[in-house]
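step=predict obj=Polyamine-transporting ATPase 13A3 n=1087
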Amino acid sequence: DMDKEERKTINEGQEDEMEIYGYNLCRWKLAIVSLGVVCTGGFLLLLLYWMPEWRVKATCIRAAIKDCEVVLLRTTDEFRKWFCAKIRFLSVETNPFSSPKSLANKVSIGHAVGLIENPAEENRPLQIRYFTHHSIKYFWNDTLHNFDFLKGLDEGVSFTSIHEKHSAGLTKGTHAYSRKLLYGVNEIRVKVPSVFKLLIKEVLNPFYIFQLFSVILWCTNEYYYYAVAIVVMSVLSIVSSLYSIRKHYVTLHDMVAAHSIVRVTVCRVNEESGEIFSTDLVPGDIIVIPLNGLVMPCDAVLINGTCIVNESMLTGESVPVTKTNLPNPSVEIKGAGNELYNPETHKRHTLFCGTTVIQTRFYTGELVKAIVVRTGFSTTKGQLVRSILYPKPTDFKLYRDACLFLLCLVAVAAIGFIYTIVNNILNEVGVKEIIVESLDIITITVPPALPAAMTVGIVYAQERLKKIGIFSISPQRINICGQLNLVCFDKTGTLTEDGLDLWGIQRVENSCFLSPEENICNEKLVKSQFVACMATCHSLTKIDGVLSGDPLDLKMFEAIGWQLVAVGQRTYFFKEGGGRERILNPVFEIIIVPCCSLRIVRQFPFSSALQRMSVVTKVLWDKKMDAYMKGAPEAITSLCKPETEVPADFEKVLEDYTRQGFRVIALAHRKLESKLTWHKLQRDTIENNMDFMGLIIMQNKLKRETPAVLADLHKADIRTVMVTGDNMLTALSVARDCGMILPQDKVIVAEALPPKDGKVAKINWHYADTLTLCMSFPQTIPIKLAHDSSEDLQVTRYHFAMNGKSFSVILEHFQDLVPKLMLHGTVFARMAPDQKTQLIEALQKVDYYVGMCGDGANDCGALKRAHGGISLSELEASVASPFTSKTPSISCVPNLIREGRAALITSFCVFKFMALYSIIQYFSVILLYSILSNLGDFQFLFIDLAIILVVVFTMSLNPACKELVAQKPPSGLISGTLLFSVLSQIIICIGFQSVGFFWVRQQPWYEKWHPGSDACNTAGTLDWNSSHFPNETEPDEHNIQNYENTTLFFISSFQYIIVAVALSKGKPFRQPSYKNCKFGIDLIFHL
């Protein structure tokens, strides 16, 4: 029971779910730790700085979360990362206008918040306990008996509540008090750390601490030159690292700070209004959206009017989006009063922070108003910034294996450490020398330059990617891209051209389809309802005189040759039912001279949930109104008059078009009764009993390079999958056209039906080309997926296709089928953004390294979740994905995989080379220690700088191979082949060093070392030297100048170069080493 009290979960079911433990500071533990810090010379303090879990457990004792002083947090994902936070108190003085209980309700604006409430103590200040983690405040909630972050109006608030309780605004007192209390400043503050803070953080990196330890050790051993060289290199490394980190912070700060503080007009209770700074906004405030727009400082839900918004900052999609007011259940949708508002589900009514409102439209004199629902880091933009500031660690086998390998080197170092101590004690060496030499062996075995060497390949790959227009905000992922074996592609704008071309129309008369028509501008059609629908049913708008909006709408509008005119600031009066109506800016007028002039008086924008949009229009100065609707054919026909209006062959005609890859849009029309007033019309009132008018057929052409790129990927045995929001048959047609599904391959469509009316969920399987049912049993899949022989595989390949609804049902009700479907699923149609992310996760669960290529618009989640997400965007670096390609072509995918493979193989080569360099030098020093000798200062300097550093930097320069091969690079260091190559090289190197060491001692001219001897300048062989420089040699106190030293130095120097050549692997992933000129010149120079 105590354990339950001590461990709870916060953000349950969310991406940032964490376990939370309570602790209180313990004085006696603190005293012991302080003593330990002094005794270890501060090393214990460093260790506790690196390990938050140890820090808390070493200085605190467990306590109930309710009363704790410190919380320890652990993520529940595979990384299990620890964080700690200090509990703080928010002191709330008694409020003159309310008791604490009512205060809690007022402040939380419809939400239970964890205030410590006690009505009996109304005169005493309230103490609210909270802690801050990753820029979000978590408050203690007495109701939940847990910490929870404070929500605005984005959860658990109904449509009715928004329109009735919150549409009046806040009083000045509540606003000031709630802001002061809990929500704080509405600002996404990205602090750019000072250079000093960054320097301290960077220097306290374990790698630099180890280097500092090494430098001190070398200085005590009188290796001054070598120590200075390493210090200079470290300083240069720190400076470049600080520059890039600070630049990243400054870029992010500038991106966030732009327009972060603006003046906004807020409406208060009793119809008061006033201007305040956007930083003072809190959830529940009502802001007025000005006529000329603004950059949104918060997330808000529209309650009056319409806005045209550019959301490219969030989505990468530059097409303006129309936002409408949230429906009012009391007036509009009957029976929907209990529907809960959610910013993501109801994004058509939500203005997101950071997006730009370009224009507003409002009717009947009402101001365009929105209620603030989220502020600061809780907004969509805030969450995006948090994901950049606090990224998830990258899990990659290479890095885990590298750590294991380092542990092996540490074990080798421990053996050397023990050997050195024993050997020196037996030879009666002084204590100081024993300590210095035994510690020195550790710095030799675990090379301090290893992390820097490992990133060289990535840096070079990043530079090469930049040259071909691919930018990265996460360079560490380049290596992971070398492992990709499956790539998901969005369809529209990625595999196919961005826009659609109008192929033609097919009208309906007397419940029969007429022949398809290509020319829409002919005399007969100009006055038809069909063309009027094309002219009015869209979300286009004029911005600075230029028509902009959805590319599909633009193509349709351009095809009919009409004009769109914004009425501007003029006020129009017209008679309706005997009264006078006033319309305020901007209403649109569509004019074709001299035929007719239409005005849009009401617009219901396209909703992806409803798959349709509609408008109400009237001929200028006429009372009669018409309603036009367009959308997905299935959705439109379901709202048309019973069977009589829709042609009998509708499904066959539709299937013929979609099978050929055309995008089909249906149109419908209805004359409205004259008694209806336009501003009281509701969507569900007009969107029924429509007359079906016909189809618009749009053509979506494949990009020229698509088939060739997909063929290259297939040749390299990389699976390709299509994930699209488009319809199934169109997606299948494009998949066949681009070669994703070959002509002889069979496609099975899985249609999953959720449980309904007491019936269990089931799956219907049918072939895509025949639409005949294979079977309706969920337990088995209709084909033998586990092929017995490769011959079966060559005869027929099968692909699964399904839509988003079926995918969700299968995920929920048929978990056991998911892996099989993931292994053979190729086309996923009508997928919502969150379903795309779920698909990526499902593929990763069956051990695929998944790449995702999309336009960044509705693929943000999937691009981030994939191992390698690449966004086709003109922006240099999109925050939506790790990689961004400036050229909107999928040819960037094979380029990224090629460079990833080259970087990965380079990392393997460098790692093996650095490990072998350590072992070679380690064995040289161990042999020399046996005769109480060592390598000299300049010898270490020459090996590390002139040989190792230059070799590492030049051997990493091999560019990527020009073509993708089917062979996959190894995923980790711990594999039989790699270990065999390293071990065999170690044995060869040790053998040659041992032979050289013992062979030189057998030579007739060999002389055992004594303090006055100099093996480099012997009297017998170098007479000329001794006669010319009689007093040049100083006494060799450290036993450096001996035959064994010289022999091992020369042998090991050649071994480093030979090992570099042996490990510098070229084909099939990198170009051959003989094409790497700098490496070749370096080798010749050394030899």
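step=describe
The chain has a mean pLDDT of 79.
step=end
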